[in-house]
Write a structure and sequence with these properties.
The chain is an alpha/beta fold. 35% of the residues lie in helices and 21% in strands.
Length: 337
C-alpha cells in the first residue's frame, strides 16, 4: 500500500480545500494510505468531519516516511524545519494559484530540486509557469490535471429547497471569498447598469473571508442595494446556484474556479472577466459571457444580450459532461509511475 502525504498551510474554506477533499475522497483507500498535515495545527479540525474517514492527520514535528509528498500550496510560514522531517520517494507541487508566497515557495522547491513535477489545474497556468526563467524548456516538469468534481453529489445537493424566490428579470449568484480581488467592485458596476435600464434583478452572494473586516468591506459596498442578499458561507451553494440565471465571477484573476465548473455541471451559464483560464471553459455568447476587467463601461452594452440569451445559453449547456473519472486516472498514473 502506497503512502501519500498532502501538505498545506491552512484551511480557508476556499477552492483549494474543496479540491483537496474531492481528490482524497476519490482515491482508493485499499490502495493508498493517506495523510494530511498543515502548518496551521488547528486547521484539520475544520475539515475533520468531512475527510476524517478518508485520511489521517499527522503532526510532522517528528520524522515521517512516505512514498509520495504533495504540497497543496505554499507552506513556508512555519514549515522550514518541518519540511526536513518528511522523508519521501517522490514529491509534487500541486500549484493552484499565483501569489507572492506561492511563487517564493515554487522557486525554492524548483531550485533546490525538492519536487519531481509541478501539477497545475488548468493549461493557462501551465503556460505561464513555463515562461518563468528556471522552468523554461522543462515541459515534462509541469503537467495539467484538472480538479475532481463529484457531479452526482453536486446535482443531488442542488435539489434541496430554498426559500429565496427569483427576480422577474434576472437572478444571479457570486460564490467566492469576500475579498476585493474577487471583483466585487466590477459586480457593483454591473448592477449599476441593470438599475439604469430598470431591470428587476436579484444578486445572491455566498461566501466569507478570513477576517470580519474583509467581510464588512464587501458588505458595505452593497449596503444601499436591497436587491443584494448575503448568504454567508454555504456548505451547499448548489441549491442557490440551481435557481439562478447566471453564476458571476468578475475576478482580477483566477486559475480554474470550481464555481465556474460547478455552474456548468448544473447547466447554469457564467458571467466572467477575461482572465486567462476563463477562455478554457467559457465561450463568449455561447455558454456564458466574458467581460473586460479594465473597461467596466462596456458592461452597459452587454445587458440586453445577457437578458435575451439566458435561456439559449442554458440550452447550450444541457449536454455538458465533466469527466472526473478520467481526471482520477491521471492522478493514479502520476502516483504509480
Amino acid at each position: 500500500m502506497k503512502t501519500i502525504l498532502f501538505y498545506t498551510n491552512g484551511i480557508y474554506r476556499g477552492g483549494i480545500e474543496i479540491a483537496l477533499y474531492n481528490l482524497i475522497s476519490h482515491l482508493d483507500k485499499n490502495k493508498y494510505k493517506i495523510y494530511v498535515t498543515y502548518t496551521d495545527k488547528n486547521a484539520f479540525k475544520i475539515l475533520e468531519k468531512r475527510i476524517g474517514d478518508y485520511c489521517e492527520y499527522v503532526d510532522i514535528d517528528k520524522e515521517i516516511h512516505v512514498d509520495i509528498l504533495i504540497y497543496c500550496n505554499y507552506v513556508l510560514k512555519t514549515a522550514e524545519n518541518d519540511i526536513k522531517n518528511i522523508k519521501y520517494k517522490k514529491a509534487y507541487f500541486w500549484f493552484h494559484c499565483f501569489g507572492e508566497n506561492q511563487e517564493k515557495f515554487l522557486e525554492k522547491v524548483c531550485k533546490e530540486k525538492l519536487v519531481d513535477k509541478i501539477i497545475t489545474v488548468c493549461n493557462s497556468i501551465r503556460k505561464e509557469l513555463l515562461e518563468i526563467e528556471y522552468l523554461k524548456g522543462k515541459e515534462n516538469k509541469v503537467i495539467t490535471i484538472k480538479n475532481i468534481l463529484d457531479t452526482a453529489e453536486i446535482k443531488a445537493k442542488s435539489q434541496e429547497s430554498v426559500e429565496i424566490s427569483k427576480a422577474k428579470d434576472l437572478t444571479m449568484i457570486v460564490i467566492a471569498r469576500l475579498v476585493k480581488e474577487k471583483g466585487f467592485g466590477r459586480v457593483k458596476e454591473l448592477l449599476k447598469y441593470l438599475k439604469q435600464q430598470h431591470i428587476d434583478y436579484k444578486l445572491l452572494i455566498a461566501g466569507t473571508a478570513n477576517t470580519e473586516e474583509q467581510v464588512m468591506q464587501i458588505k458595505s459596498m452593497f449596503k444601499e442595494d436591497t436587491h443584494v442578499i448575503f448568504l454567508g458561507y454555504q456548505e451547499n451553494p448548489y441549491k442557490y446556484l440551481r435557481i439562478c440565471d447566471y453564476n458571476v465571477l468578475l475576478s482580477d484573476r483566477e486559475n480554474m474556479s470550481l464555481s465556474l465548473l460547478e455552474s456548468k455541471i448544473l447547466g447554469i451559464p457564467n458571467i466572467v472577466t477575461d482572465f486567462e483560464s476563463a477562455f478554457e471553459e467559457v465561450t463568449d455568447g455561447e455558454n456564458g459571457f466574458i467581460l473586460s476587467r479594465e473597461d467596466t463601461i462596456s458592461y452597459k452594452n452587454r445587458i440586453q444580450e445577457i437578458l435575451s440569451k439566458k435561456q439559449i445559453l442554458k440550452d447550450n449547456l444541457k449536454d455538458f459532461k465533466y469527466d472526473s473519472e478520467e481526471i482520477l486516472n491521471q492522478w493514479e498514473t502520476l502516483i504509480n509511475c
